[in-house]
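For concreteness, we quote verbatim a single protein encoded this way:
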Amino acid sequence: MHQSAQTLYEKMGGEKRLKQLVETFYDIIEDDPDGELIHALHLKGHGMNHTRLAQFEFLSGFFGGPKLYIERNGHSDMRLIHEHVGVGHIEVETWLLCMDKAIDQVGFDSDLKQPMMKIFTRAAEIIRNQD
C-alpha cells in the first residue's frame, strides 16, 4: 500500500515546532550580533511583532501546512513581499546564517536541516534584489 509523502511541515512537527523555529530565529535577529543587519531591515518595515506572525504564517504554507499567509494576504509572492527592502548578497548570507543557528537551537536533526536550508537558500536568492 502506497503511503503519501509527508510534507516538510509535518516532518518538522507541525505548528508547534514551526512557531518555535520562527520565535528562535527572531530572538537571534534581535539579540545575537549576527542578526543586527536583518534586525535593522525589519525595523524599517512593519516591526518585529508583525514580522514574527507573518513569517510563521508564510512558512506554514511554504512548507506544506495551512496556507495562512495566503488566506490573510491573498498571495505569497516573496519578491512582492520584500520589494520595499534592499536585499543583497550580504543580507541573504546574514539571514541564512541566523536561520542556520535557529534550526540548530531548536534541535532539528541534519536529515531535516539539510532540506530546510536548501529551500531557505533558494528562497533567499529569489528575493535578492540588489548586487
User: Anything to note?
Assistant: The chain is about 70% helix and 0% strand.
